[in-house]
Specification:
7 strands, 5 helices, seven-stranded mixed beta sheet
Length: about 160
């Protein structure tokens, strides 16, 4: 497996992974809400902006099967935020997410980051277990609006 910086050529694979992971993970969301959110959050112009923004890392995990996961993080001041972390459902529990996290942490550390935060829907038990296994602790909650409905989020923090 290779973890590498994403390129514009990875945009379609990133969208596909996000869509498949969301449909597999978020049972409480209607299918059209997932599709609309993925289309909005992972539109070509949004991904292009992320790929060129200073203090940002967008990474993909690539195997013989192609791109199987991605992550997107950004540093502001001394805090890094994991904005996105998805592994295709067919490749979960293979170490892809851990490898992406470790490379993201290393890349963002170059920007003098002292801690990382990750935010996920509270209903995502798999995400909660993943972040807790990496040493993150639940430090806050919030809400996000998806499809006109409010959903509870959990904020995880890892001190470095």
């Amino acid at each position: 497996m290779e973890i590498r910086p994403a390129t514009a050529d990875d945009r379609s694979a990133i969208r596909d992974i996000a869509r498949d992971a969301w449909h597999d993970t978020y049972d409480e969301l209607a299918s059209d809400v997932i599709d609309d959110t993925v289309d909005d959050w992972y539109a070509d112009d949004e991904l292009e902006r992320a790929l060129s923004k200073p203090g940002t890392a967008v990474l993909v995990a690539e195997t013989d099967a192609g791109v199987v996961g991605f992550t997107h993080g950004v540093v502001q001041d001394d805090e890094g935020d994991v904005l996105r972390m998805y592994v295709h459902p067919d490749h979960q529990r293979e170490g892809v997410g851990t490898a992406l996290h470790e490379r993201l942490r290393d890349d963002l550390a170059d920007f003098n980051m002292n801690r990382m935060r990750a935010i996920d829907l509270a209903s995502n038990a798999t995400g909660r277990a993943f972040y807790e296994e990496l040493g993150f602790e639940e430090t806050d909650t919030g809400t996000v609006e998806l499809g006109g409905e409010a959903y509870e989020e959990v904020v995880y923090t890892l001190s470095l």
